[in-house]
Automatic annotation (TrEMBL):
Descriptive protein name: Kinase family protein
Recorded GO MF terms: ATP binding; protein serine/threonine kinase activity
Gene Ontology biological-process annotations: signal transduction
Family listed: Belongs to the protein kinase superfamily.
Keyword check for Lyase: no
Binding site for ATP: 47
The entry's keywords: ATP-binding, Kinase, Nucleotide-binding, Serine/threonine-protein kinase, Transferase
Amino acid sequence: MRIDLSVPKLRAELELNKVLGKGSSGSVSLIKYNGRRDGETLYAAVKTSNIIHADTLYKEFQILSEFKGCSRIVQCYGTKVEERITDDGDVEFKIHMEYASGGSLRNFMSRFKEMKLPDPLIRRFTRMILEGLAVIHGHGYVHCDLKPENILVFPSFELKISDFGLSKREGDNNWWLPSHPFAGTPIYMSPESISTGETRRGLDLWSLGCRPWWDKNYDLEDLKKGYMPLIPKDIPCDAKLFVMSCFAAETDKRKNAFTLLRHCFLRGDVNKIIEPLVMKNENSNDIALELEKIELRFSQLRCISGE
């Protein structure tokens, strides 16, 4: 359900519930909206930044606006970044997004012994993340900071990718400096990204392979040398093959999200990825945009199948 939080008359009916988290670039708070005639209470997450990090927030809002209707990417409400003056006289910037009642995937994993999820759940979650990456990469972006903290858990164990503040256009390496070689979280970066600043979809696929089964002795020096983490012997054979694909030294051998969705590890029909990527839209412009996306996906699928 979509809430237009940009309408001024609704603001008085929004109530701060609690702070969900704080980071170096701002905070995320939970708000509730009690103004519905049917009495239902709706929730939304509000991401707030100061003027120093305003550009990052505007960038994230712009990227999220391109993904409206994509069910594997967290949805952003409203039509613009909200600006206001705080009681202290500072400028504050906000965007409103879907609230994930299950928290982050990292929090979800912490409920399990040694953070190890059941095998069927790992396969299901991997498929959902790949569905999101297929859309992101299809739009020419690289997430650059794919990790459990940036994947949100919604009801019925549905996952959505969030936090696009560090995302970049594929092929953009202007950010890279030898003294600052990390576009995102260091331990989730790929060898080629930190050595030369290569920012392509292979970076996100490497990050996808970075599960909590990293060898405890694996560190950034190993990453800089291009070594992949050791893969435990006790995981299924098809899981090992999948992770090896994500950790391939040659980025082309990491394939792409659509190809990996056909991997035996996921045990699914590639045609099933079409339906979850699109949600029902409320106006003709959104519907036209989604039809264009669907047409692009069918084109990509035909290329994969060789038709």
